[in-house]
Specification:
The protein is mainly beta. The protein contains two helices and 25 strands. Helix content is 4%, strand content 40%. Strands 20, 21, 22, 23, 24 and 25 form a six-stranded antiparallel beta sheet that branches. The radius of gyration is 23 Å and the shape is elongated.
């Protein structure tokens, strides 16, 4: 059984036009589809793993990728992605009929990220407001709309001056300026329907024992995935944020093979040839291993905080093919690095020489 352990890295910030609920929030126009290359989710890094008190049912990225909104049956939270810190715990949706929070059924950020919309619907219980608009910067409630009719999916218009919500028997467009219903329709406008595939990205993640997802969200640039659920061996639910490099970002320098290439333990061989004796106590080693669909084994060895004036980190990618005797043969070794002073940004992986 092959598994993977991942660490934390930085967050790129991209715009996201909308989010649509039902637990799967996806991008309308991923940046990688515009020329950046397809993300490789089989080699994704886990940026954060956050322990939760209850299972998440809804997720949404902010347009600039700096915030993540999550909802459970009884809570609504906003997370700061750079640090993994809880930024706001919002009051959520309530009803004068019961003394508890009502489940959130939809989440969406406005195109400029200045408004977070949440919806609620609970059979037999009328919420005080089925559609609420929050300020994600302060955590304050800005507007309470739709009364007690109950709302499900939610999405902002492309201009951000109105919000669509499936409330009651149809779909309504609410004006943010007046709070009134400006338009009604039987279905969401076509341009607001999901076009990305968060479930497909999650299926490729290099953690086969992660278990089923309770909620997913894919960022606009298509390279960040939020996964919520409870892995079989975990005592509590968790929220994981993954980052996948595009083909353009994933370039490696091919290295010569070492003298010994066959082994029964690919991780041990990788450490033997490419790990460091760590005289620097701040240097961090991370080793990851998983099985590819081709039957090959991929090992990723990352060394961070190197005691080196030019290079900040090295990352080795090793590919092993199976042999009949139960051994694995190393067939390809690749490397890239991060530079301290350029020519690239400190958190950018490159094959260019560091200055």
């Amino acid at each position: 059984m092959f598994h993977r352990r991942s660490g934390v890295s930085g967050v790129q910030r991209q715009r996201w036009r909308y989010a649509i609920a039902l637990g799967l929030a996806v991008s309308a126009s991923p940046a990688w589809a515009q020329g950046g290359g397809s993300p490789d989710w089989s080699a994704a890094d886990m940026q954060h793993e956050l322990e939760l008190e209850a299972s998440v049912t809804q997720l949404a990225f902010s347009p600039d990728g700096t915030l993540l909104a999550s909802a459970t049956e009884s809570s609504l939270k906003v997370w700061e992605l750079a640090s993994g810190r809880l930024k706001h715990r919002l009051d959520g949706h309530r009803s004068p009929e019961v003394d508890r929070a009502l489940p959130v059924t939809g989440l969406a950020f406005s195109p400029d990220g200045s408004v977070l919309a949440s919806t609620s619907w609970n059979p037999g219980v009328m919420p005080d407001a089925s559609l609420k608009l929050w300020d994600p910067a302060t955590g304050e409630l800005r507007q309470a709309l739709a009364g007690g009719q109950g709302c499900r999916e939610v999405a902002f218009s492309a201009t951000g001056d109105s919000v669509w919500a499936a409330c009651g028997r149809d779909v309504q467009r609410y004006s943010l300026e007046s709070g009134d219903v400006a338009e009604r329709a039987e279905h969401f406008p076509g341009e607001l329907l999901p076009q990305g595939d968060a479930a497909a990205a999650a299926a490729e993640l290099p953690m086969p024992r992660q278990g089923p997802a309770a909620a997913l969200a894919l960022s606009e640039d298509g390279t960040r995935l939020a996964w919520a659920g409870q892995p079989p061996t975990y005592p509590t639910p968790v929220l994981r944020v993954w980052h996948a490099e595009t083909a353009a970002e994933a370039d490696y320098l091919v290295l010569d093979l070492p003298g010994m290439t066959t082994t029964r333990d690919p991780v041990s061989l990788a450490r033997e040839h490419y790990s460091l004796e760590l005289p620097n106590p701040v240097t961090e080693e991370r080793i990851e291993q998983w099985m590819l669909d081709s039957g090959e084994v991929r090992v990723m060895l990352t060394l961070n905080n190197l005691k080196d004036d030019a290079s900040r980190a090295w990352r080795y990618r090793l590919t092993f093919e199976p042999r009949e005797d139960g051994r694995w043969e190393l067939v390809r070794v690749e490397r890239k690095h991060q530079c301290r002073r350029g020519p690239t940004e400190p958190d950018e992986w490159t094959t260019r020489s560091c200055v």
